[in-house]
Design a protein that fits this description.
single chain; 4 helices; about 0% strand
């Protein structure tokens, strides 16, 4: 069901250039937006781009074989209240 960058491994995200990571973060924003609409709940409210990127980079560094989608799902769980 997931398409695009979400199916790539965290190691690919980690090895990406700064410019490429912006594209990943854009995919993440769209994925979170879809969750907001489908769940009728605001996820990851008031988090800056840099804070979000640091969290995802840290998770992916520690879990290189997980998918980027998995990292974003855990990010949503971590920052949804």
């Amino acid at each position: 069901m997931v398409k695009g960058l979400g199916v790539t491994k965290c190691t690919t995200f980690n090895d990406s250039s700064i410019e490429e990571k912006i594209i990943y973060m854009s995919w993440m924003a769209g994925y979170i937006s879809s969750h907001n609409i489908l769940k009728k709940k605001l996820h990851a409210k008031n988090l800056s781009f840099n804070r979000s990127k640091i969290w995802i980079e840290s998770y992916c560094y520690n879990n290189p074989e997980k998918t980027f989608k998995n990292a974003v799902d855990l990010f949503i769980n971590e920052f949804t209240k």
